[in-house]
Amino acid sequence: MWNIPNTLTLIRLGGIPLLLILAFAGQPVAVLLLGLLLVLTDWLDGALARALHQQTPLGAKLDTIADVLLGLSLVLCVARLDWSFLARHWVAVVMVLASYGLSAAVCLAKFGIWPSYHNYLAKVGMTLGSATGLLLLTKAAGWLAWPLDWLFLLAAGLITLANLESVAITARLRHPRSNVGSIFSLLRRQLH
Q1: Which domains occur in the chain, in start order?
Q2: Residue 47 CB partners (closer than 8 Å, separation 6+)
Q3: CA-to-CA distance for 75 and 134, rounded, in angstroms?
Q4: Per-residue pLDDT tens for 104-115?
Q5: Which of 136, 168, 182, 192 has the least C-beta neighbours within 10 A?
Q6: Would the pTM count as exceeding 0.70?
Q7: Cα–Cα distance, 98 to 93 (Å, whole number)
């Protein structure tokens, strides 16, 4: 059976190199349009996986890989097109990268796999982060003049908290799992 959500995730993965090529070629409008398309595939794949009952462990892992690579790519695109913005917020960027590295390292050490919890806080943080990345690309294209510092810092803070929650989830799990709502839902389930 054809898995539509995984196809969307593969499209997202395939579009990331083109996104970077366009950014390094100095094409902010093309980067913005392709970035918007790739973010839409991210929003659609999870909803379709649930609606079509096509949630799989492979799909969760592919989605996590695509999410991380798209997030990093958006940061690289913003860095290429508006370096001064990221230079002002380098501490927030380091916090996100370090907390994600910690989350991945803890899960790899305990279970030998990459975490793919898709916890609610991560979904909110990544949605806000993707939206902020697109707004920053809109600004780099010259279509937006709003200051986006507060939004970027909020997204970075939420993503950092989500990564730290992933560390806590890994610490509580006895066996690897995907799609854990939150540390609180995991604790409730373990207590009953």
Answers
A1: 4-191 (1.20.120)
A2: none
A3: 10
A4: 999 999 999 989
A5: 192
A6: yes
A7: 9
